[in-house]
Amino acid sequence: MKKYSKYLLTALCIVALALSAGSFMKVNAADPTVTVAGQPVDLTYAAEKALPSVVHIKYVQNSKVKTVEVQDPFSDFFSDPFGFFGNPGQGGTRKQQVQTPKKTATGSGVIISNDGFIVTNNHVVEGADELTVTLNDNREFSARIIGTDKNTDLALIKIDGKSLPAITIANSDNIKVGEWVLAVGNPLGLNNTVTAGIVSAKARSLGANGVESFIQTDAAINAGNSGGALVNTRGELVGINAMLFSQTGTNIGYGFAIPTTIMNKVVADLKEYGTVQRALLGIMGGDVHNYIDKQKEEGKEVDLGTNEGVYIEKVEDDGAGADAGLEKGDVITAVDGKKVTKMAELQEIMANKRPGDKITVTYLHNKKSQTKTVTLKNAQGNTKIVKNADMDVLGADFRPITESQKKNLEINYGLEVIKVNGGKMKEAGIQKGFIIRQVNDEAMKTVEDLQDVVKEASTSKEPVLIIKGIYPTGKKGYFAVPLND
């Protein structure tokens, strides 16, 4: 469960829950796609359409042995009982191996293709050693993770199946505030549950994820619903349920779903590239009305020429925005001719772009409207497609150090370079026998630790590994290993 705070709703906590919601409805009419104003809504058509596509996900993280530092209140006393070299009784730390408990959790997911691709939340599957998917008809499958994206809290997993009941995906841009929706999922251990409500707001920003433009709904969402479906009255997917506002961890009125406009792009990128291609405008800022309110609180009057849009607080050097001439104090009012009233709307537009794409940005500079064409860049400042690097790029083999090495070098962990074939390690001058202790300030205890850091660094703004280690002689060594050519 994840918890967040909201600026305008200080009494509430945002709790990221394992959600699975499906909200479907149909009017009392022969055609379920037609809504008649003032007529009661029949949700059975939407529920029947969506329920088979929503799955239960069981998460298992196996018990592991970890080495941790624990306080030892007597270590300093016995080595220096009278405090000649410090304060007596302050205590020290010592290494101790502990067995972590096995963890299990549940969430929901949505089948998006009949060959077994399933969308869920990143927080539903992150860190899992085992994933078990149970279909609406109680068939069980083991699942593997295809890719995840923390910035949007989305994940793509896969089961081996054929002719599975894939949901129909709608364009979330077409839903309207006040429109009926259903949430489908497995809340509180109650599988195959449907709740109904309306779209309460669109493009809602909560400060929970790096990229967000949530659909807000009053359809009941509870623990276990994360990753489930938000559907329209035709049973079509319009969002992936992700979190709710709550003081208690249970539903008190509002839930939030990731729109399909963002989901579709994330899924396509994870399938094709293994990581999300994130196009950046190279600015920092926020909603104009928030900026104006803040200035008023400080006793300042401000006239930007508008009360809507995205106020630019900072323009990054060498970014796409700087290249196009955007400046601090400008206000973005439209992108590609589509009106932008707040940051969440801009984020939703940008989430559908890739590095190298061109957009037209309309903005106010000194209250005068201008339009520029902007070529978007990636986090590394160019227009290339970014892919996760794997261990092969290092051109070396590694293994955790032995107990004998730990004793001789008086260290508790490290990865020994046992072979250098070429690649980035050789280019940096790292040789066989060198023991890697830290990479980008992360401790290297297993080969998996190194894999994780390489993957993360390869898509970051600065794709470089800062390696700290020790030679067999005890001499320390430091290396910078660029991952890009």
Describe this protein's structure:
- Helices cover 16% and strands 36% of the residues.
- The model is unreliable at 1-34 and 77-89 (pLDDT under 50).
- The protein is globular and about 75 Å long.
- The protein has helices spanning 44-50, 75-79, 122-125, 260-273, 288-297, 320-324, 343-350, 403-409, 423-428, 447-458; strands at 2-5, 13-16, 26-27, 41-42, 54-61, 65-72, 92-99, 103-111, 117-120, 130-134, 140-149, 154-159, 180-185, 193-204, 214-217, 229-231, 237-246, 255-259, 283-287, 310-315, 331-335, 338-339, 358-365, 368-375, 396-400, 415-420, 435-439, 442-443, 464-470, 476-482.
- A hairpin with a 7-residue loop joins strand 13 and strand 14 (193-204).
- Strands 13-14-15-18-17-16 form a 6-stranded antiparallel barrel. It has a 6-stranded antiparallel barrel with strand order 5-8-9-12-11-10. Strands 19, 20, 21, 22, 23 and 24 form a 6-stranded antiparallel β-sheet that branches.
- The longest helix is centred in the middle third of the chain and has 14 residues, at 260-273.
- The protein has 485 residues and is an alpha+beta fold.
